Amino acid sequence: MNDTDVLIIGGGISGLSTASWLVQQGIEVELWEADARTGGKIRSRQESGYLTEQAAGILMNFRPQVDHLINQLHLNDSKVLRSKTLKRHIIHQGKLTEMPMTIPGMMASPLWSRETKRHLATEWLIPRGREPQESVSAFIERRFGREILEKAIDPFIAGTLASDPDQADAAAVLPRLTALESRYGSITAGILIHKIFKRRRVNNAEAFSFKNGMQSLTDALSESPGIKIRRNHKALAIEPTKNGWRATAATFSGEHTIRCKHLVLCTPADISAQLMAAIDKPISDLLESIEYAPLAIIHYGFDPQQIKHPLNGSGFLIPGGEKYAFNGNLWMSTLFKQRAPDGKVLMTSYLGGARRPEQAHWSDQRLHQALQQNLKQLLGISGEPEYQRIDRHSQGLPLYHGAYQQRMKQLTNKIESWRGLHLAANYLGGVSVRERIFQGLQTADKISLQLCHQQQVQPLNPPDGLLQI
Ligand SMILES: Cc1cc2nc3c(=O)[nH]c(=O)nc-3n(C[C@H](O)[C@H](O)[C@H](O)COP(=O)(O)OP(=O)(O)OC[C@H]3O[C@@H](n4cnc5c(N)ncnc54)[C@H](O)[C@@H]3O)c2cc1C
Fold first, then answer.
1. 198, 202, 206, 210: CA torsion to nearest 10
2. CATH of the domain at 272
3. Is the pTM of this model over 0.90?
4. With contact defined as beta carbons under 8 Å apart, do 135 and 169 qualify?
5. Which residue puts its alpha carbon closest to atom 50 of ligand 1?
6. CA–CA distance, 387 with 303 (Å, rounded to integer)
7. 13 C-alpha to center of ligand 1: Å?
8. pLDDT tens-digit readout, 329-367
């Protein structure tokens, strides 16, 4: 006799969204979270009138399944949309430079040399790659040339994924672009075909947050009726049983053990590796091999009179060749309303990552000194910020480095051999909140189908399928 159908370990967005999709299908779910709060990395803070995010700050969505979940959670009215027309910038030769976001815009931009424009126009003539595994740098350089890699892709990969394009696995990090190449033989031709046939929903992507920040999403998920959440439950051990799994947690009142039919590990890779160590060493070793980038996130509140730049955009990213102390800077109060007190501005900068992991461990004083010196030069800032806060993550984001896709395939194949065991966390299938929610649905559907044979459970029909590119 099992105590619950499904036990989920880990109460970040991966665990919470999986739990929510499961209860929507009438499946009994218990979720254990080691911490006193759920939400994991996602946390929004209101301090001195500024609203800051310690991890995800923007949900970039083109998946109807995510819209569906937000609707279910009654969060539509608190959505705050980012304007689609905001400019994006990169640092080019020490100056903020507008980044064109369309192919015609790129062709007209002074940012790119004639050689790069020619490369772009003739990309469709370049044959498909033959290497089974390629880094992001090799893939982009082969298709678009070195300049696109250095000025567009490198800052994007370092600034949004904390990753290193020379080491990142193209198939894992840029799955849509590599799929376009393998399907159509060309990225530009593939984009065009998708545009003509209106199959590319990325065009309809919506970027948003919530009035009270991204934590509104994890809070709403945590409050969804039907999920039995146990906070301060740190999973210590798991083991297979005849009919499923048994798990033990450390709690304030001693150890707590339950049995379940399905067990979903939504914990960071090293924690899942520890839990798997006694059961399946090769799985544990594969999990253990996943590296994470440390990050420091610095939030500054200013009086706009202290800043020469109008902050009329979403912020800027920094190519590795530009030699600044940080990877990117988001103008949060321009992106979303009510992030700063009236008449003030809020900006958030990202330091560390795979590019310069040591920076994430610098003292507060050293971080402020390096960043403020750079911001002074780039944005014409004078004086000290009136509000400042540093958030740190020793394991910020998993790095999809090396032959990542291949290793993850091995991992998922091995997991398949354990009946009722599932992995759903941001080292598999994408780090973004959108992909976490989507993967949660996939995991829930798989469990639901398996339980269907034993129980009369109706699998959820998610909104219409997407072309997965
Ligand atoms: C600085 C930063 C900025 C980001 N910006 C964006 C963005 O703008 N947009 C976007 O889409 N994404 C963004 N992301 C990515 C996104 O925030 C993360 O990928 C996502 O929140 C991770 O969710 P998760 O549930 O997989 O992991 P986590 O949030 O790490 O959750 C894992 C949970 O497991 C719990 N746990 C650990 N051990 C145990 C145990 N033994 N027993 C029980 N529970 C345990 C932890 O306490 C934690 O709550 C950003 C990430 C970072 C770090």
1. 140
2. 3.50.50.60
3. yes
4. yes
5. 56
6. 10
7. 7
8. 999 999 999 999 999 999 999 999 999 999 999 999 999
